[in-house]
UniProtKB/TrEMBL annotation:
UniProt-listed InterPro entries: CheY-like_superfamily, Sig_transdc_resp-reg_receiver
Keyword DNA-binding assigned: no
Gene3D superfamilies: 3.40.50.2300
Record organism: Sphingobium indicum (strain DSM 16413 / CCM 7287 / MTCC 6362 / UT26 / NBRC 101211 / UT26S) (Sphingobium japonicum)
BP GO annotations: phosphorelay signal transduction system
Name of the protein: CheY-like response regulator
């Protein structure tokens, strides 16, 4: 996979912690990704997904302002948009239907984020 794999990818960031959201956006912008958001609430993320905006990948915090982000994960899965969870929660918190979704344990390094997202891209990218 080339270093340019994330270039021009439209990546939704659903994260309610401002500093973490900023760090995620900055790390992915360095790879020339197009950042959608960051959005801090489940309703905001769902609105963006339902708007028809092209989303290539997503990074979801499991807890967004006190609400679990699983409806967002379900909406992404329904549209076949690959995503990764970024969370401090234990594995048992994530429903079994998301067992194959990559999980980044906070805090994590930007290179782990890039690697996880690149692994979700189709091989032709």
């Amino acid at each position: 996979m080339t270093e340019a794999a994330l270039q021009d990818c439209r990546i939704l960031i659903a994260e309610d912690e401002y500093l973490i959201a900023t760090d995620l956006a900055e790390a992915l912008t360095q790879d020339n990704a197009v950042i959608l958001g960051p959005v801090p609430r489940v309703a905001d993320a769902l609105s963006l997904i339902e708007s028809g905006t092209r989303i290539d990948l997503a990074v979801l915090d499991v807890n967004l302002c006190g609400d679990m982000a699983f409806p967002v994960a379900d909406a992404l899965a329904a549209q076949r948009i690959p995503f990764a969870f970024a969370t401090g929660y234990d594995d048992w918190t994530i429903p079994a239907r998301f067992a194959n979704v990559p999980r980044l344990v906070k805090p994590f390094r930007p290179d782990r984020l890039r690697s996880a997202l690149k692994s979700l891209l189709p091989p032709s990218r």
